[in-house]
Amino acid sequence: MKTKIKRLTTDLILLLVLIVADMATKKWAVLTLKDKSSIPIIKNVLEFYYLPNGNTGAAFGMLSGHRVLFLVIAAVVVAVIGYALFNMPEAGKFKYIEFLLVFIAAGGVGNMIDRFIQGYVVDFIYISCINFPIFNVADMYVSICTVLLAVKLLFGISEEDYRVLENALSSPLKRLFGMNNK
Q1: Is 122 helix (H, G, I), strand (E, B) or coil?
Q2: Fewest CB within a 10 Å sphere: which of 10, 11, 97, 120?
Q3: In this structure, is residue 44 part of a structural domain?
Q4: Is residue 182 one of the residues assigned to a domain?
Q5: Helix or strand or coil: residue 42?
Q6: To the nearest whole number, what is the mean pLDDT of the chain?
Q7: Is 139 a catalytic residue?
Q8: What is the total count of domains within the chain?
Q9: HSE of 57 in the Cβ direction (CA atoms, 13 Å)?
Q10: pLDDT reported for residue 119
Q11: Domain assignment of residue 105, yes or no
Q12: pLDDT of residue 63
């Protein structure tokens, strides 16, 4: 139990640090970029550009204006990740998965805070060479770590470890609903 408490405390500290980092970059973007021209980082490739009026949609502005829906979805995803982290097997070989889940949760919480307080998400990173939609640090947490998690689960985990992970995550639910563990 002490190991679990230590692991979860570490996860919580990392989560909070990541959220603060995301919120700090967004605050910087508002103070530095709002109502100003962009700041080139790599000429004709990458720039900091404040998205006027913020992003009221999901990834890349999709489904704009559905604030409550996004708040509910983010809360559910963060709760599911919290459940997974709490029930994660203690073996060190699952630490990478745990680490990715913390980053995904931090990104979800960071954008959820923006949506809750402001009604929109502050976006300011722009890849101009491909006219990629403007995004933020929390978006990077979510998108990069989700891809890495999918790759890890699809190609980087043995069948035996997958069964251990599946059992660890499903056993509490089975006990809760009175189902037999098989």
Answers
A1: coil
A2: 10
A3: yes
A4: no
A5: strand
A6: 89
A7: yes
A8: 1
A9: 10
A10: 87
A11: yes
A12: 56
Q: Which domain holds residue 23?
A: 2-176
Q: Please give the Cα distance from 174 to 169 (Å, whole number).
A: 9
Residue 114 annotated in active site: no
> Could you give phi then psi for residue 48, rounded to 5 degrees?
-95, 120
Helix (H, G, I), strand (E, B) or coil at 66: coil
Of 11, 22, 114, 123, the catalytic one is 123
What pLDDT, on a 0 to 100 scale, did the predictor assign at position 159?
93
Task: Please give the share of the chain, as a percent, with pLDDT higher than 70.
Answer: 88
pLDDT digits (tens, 9 = 90+) for 84-105: 999 999 878 999 999 999 999 9
φ/ψ of 161, rounded to 5, equals -65, -35
Cα torsion angle, 35, 40, 43, 46, sign: negative
**Closest among 5, 122, 155 to 54, alpha carbons compared:** 122
Give the predicted TM-score (pTM) of the model: 0.88
Give the C-alpha separation, 78 to 100, whole Å: 13
In a domain, 94, yes or no: yes
Q: What is the pLDDT of residue 66?
A: 64
Per-residue confidence at 56, pLDDT binned at 50, 70, 90? low
The length of the chain, given as a count of residues:
182
The answer, yes or no, to whether residue 60 has pLDDT greater than 60, is no
Q: Could you say which of 11, 22, 114, 139 is catalytic?
A: 139
Instruction: Give 22's DSSP letter.
Output: H
Residues in contact with 148: Cβ distance below 8 Å, sequence separation at least 6, in sequence order: 100
